[in-house]
Specification:
Blueprint lengths: L2 H6 L3 H18 L3 E8 L2 E9 L12 E2 L3 H15 L23 H6 L24 H5 L16 H15 L3 H13 L16 E3 L6 E3 L9 H4 L2 E2 L1 H13 L7 H8 L13 E2 L4 E5 L2 E10 L2 E8 L4 E7 L7 H15 L22 E5 L2 E7 L5 E5 L7 E5 L5 E3 L8 E6 L5 E6 L2 E4 L23
Antiparallel strand pairs: 1-2, 1-11, 3-6, 4-5, 7-8, 8-9, 9-10, 10-11, 12-13, 12-19, 13-14, 14-15, 15-16, 16-17, 17-18, 18-19
Helix pairs in contact: 2-11, 3-6, 3-7, 9-10
Amino acid sequence: MDALAEDLELLPSTRRALRHRLAVAQSEGRSPSLVAAVSRGGEVVWEGSRTSVEGHGPDGDVQYRIGSITKTFTAVLVMRLRDEGLLDLSDPLGRHVPGTGADEVTVAQLLAHTGGLAAETPGQWWERSSAELRPGLAEVLGEEPFKHAPGRAFHYSNPGYTLLGSLVEALRGKPWEQVLRAEVLEPLGLDRTSGEPRAPHAGGWAVHPWADLMMPEPAEDLGVMAAAGQLWSTTGDLTRFAAFLLRGDERVLSAESVREMRAAAAPAAPGSADAGYGLGLQVNVCDGRRLVGHGGSLPGFVAGLWLSEEEDLTAVVLANCTSGVPASTVATDLIGIVAEAEPRFPEPWRPFREDDRVPLELTGIWYWGTAAHVLRLRADGSLELGPVGVTGRSARFRGEPDGSWTGLTGYYAGETLRAVRRDDGTPSHLDLGSFVFTREPYDPEAPVPGGVDPQGWRGIG
């Protein structure tokens, strides 16, 4: 066994803990069946299932309905349109799909559920009634589609993602599912993900809340609402999709674009600077671990897909009951079990290998006013800036062709860092979004905003 395969192989104690968590979820949640998978480094390291039927259990090839995890697939399609230059995330919807009654809502607001639209459609419960009741967007939005002013607050909206599906269809000139298959499912090899169930698939069940009895749930086609929750999939396909959400795939979306999806775009949850909603992905913090993913439910099914970038772990949980199994919680628990029992090995340190000129003269201590910061150069060519000895604003920066650096994380995400040089080419100071960093505190030779007292530093006379 090579070193990589050995690192991916989970210990027997870890595998037993995963099996136990799954068994508890199926038993306490009273689900007819439940299937799960965990992957690390893009490779499945554990699969498990539980069922109430004697003699067999579902595996990674059995389809379950995944509900709102469909929204993440729709978001990928929208990001592809953005990357191709066919739209900007700041575009109002009406520029591309006019006349809906929600023309002023931007694409970004729809992706992040900050458009102010209602959570559900008017009329009958759309998940459990015929799509014929909602032949078009007018029936999806109703006469009063807004519950909040656009951009003011996070308010989860299923109709909002229906509008995004219509946006995809308008710009591609093809049905949403056809676009999805050609542009995402086929390139990623997700041949067991579909709009309609394909055998083998689980049936959806309602379990009586006060008795151990079951009743089958209807499996309605969602019609125009499909982009918000139509899909069926498997743990095999969803673990591959989760790996894509971590790494990107140039055939579908770049690593940079999926990183943008994972960043919180909606107002953060109270008490956490990292939690909220990204672009088609939920963002959460659990036991100090930042997790990104999505939950899903439709009558008869619950689903959860979650990933940890730090641990390079993903987990998928699918069950065929209307309620009872907290699929997202179980998925995040599976990630926690592996992360705590078998922490990820850090990548081996390697020296810088780029042939380009290494900006070594920029590294070291810089001062923003009197606050000391250190700038480090990493082997991948990125720069890291952070305060010395205290907590504060830290960020990582990516080099640009013009010699500047773009912030990727933290307070300075999206901001530009420039090294301002003297006539002889040596660095005078750093300019970071108007902040001047100098080699000495308030260096009088640098353009410090407000100037420097000509008497300089002094004690009390």
